[in-house]
Amino acid sequence: xxxxxxxxxxxxxxxxxxxxxxxxxxxxxxxxxxxxxxxxxxxxxxxxxxxxxxxxxxxxxxxxxxxxxxxxxxxxxxxxxxxxxxxxxxxxxxxxxxxxxxxxxxxxxxxxxxxxxxxxxxxxxxxxxxxxxxxxxxxxxxxxxxxxxxxxxxxxxxxxxxxxxxxxxxxxxxxxxxxxxxxxxxxxxxxxxxxxxxxxxxxxxxxxxxxxxxxxxxxxxxxxxxxxxxxxxxxxxxxxxxxxxxxxxxxxxxxxxxxxxxxxxxxxxxxxxxxxxxxxxxxxxxxxxxxxxxxxxxxxxxxxxx
Length: 306
Hints:
Elements: H1 2-9, H2 14-24, H3 30-41, H4 43-47, H5 51-58, H6 62-71, H7 77-93, H8 109-130, H9 133-144, E1 149-153, H10 156-170, E2 175-178, H11 181-188, E3 196-200, H12 207-218, E4 222-227, E5 240-243, H13 255-277, H14 279-293
Parallel strand pairs: 1-2, 1-3, 3-4, 4-5
């Protein structure tokens, strides 16, 4: 009941639909791309079309139209058409344009905070519900016993990669984050059985992340993919796949931003799981790192003099 309420409340804005089409286009067939591009570029016109009409307009089949609607997040074409009709009504009413999927350009800042918080909560809940705990447990086991862990990520995912490596370092594990694709590959060559390589990519098709993971995989390292696309290219080189969810996208809040919330949840799950498995060494290491930094958080700052 709650999910249905969210779907009815948050109709996608044209900018959000266009952003989603751009994000998913690489994973679509050419015929599906034609359907997606049509509804994104002319939501008002497509809202007036039946499934047969849209299929004829795009030179595809009714089955392709339905598959495209589902890939875009709708149960079927009827739901997509209703959403497009809502957008048409919104445009004709002259209401303020949307900045994100449900935030208008003239919304008070308090409403912006509330809506973004609700979006983040839903993203986290969706990620937790869809996370394969067996895959997570296997990844934790591999990390806890790894000689070394390399983490690959570009852009926003690169920040998540850094977050994971810093957490592992704080509990005494050897970990490196690589955002430079050349360094990532040259380091991946050195990995072997007993090491772990983790690729973080929402789209699952980022070549600069896939390449080092492939090299690590071929050299015998245990590989993990954190991605929003369970059937993405990156998964073919992953021993374990951890799937994330993402909030509704828009021009100002694309997947690269909204996906980071769910990626960080997965990273925290990995870290806590590893800390549990290695508690006898992790707890003293974490305490030592806190002590080493304590003077930097003192009221006067600087190094404590004796």
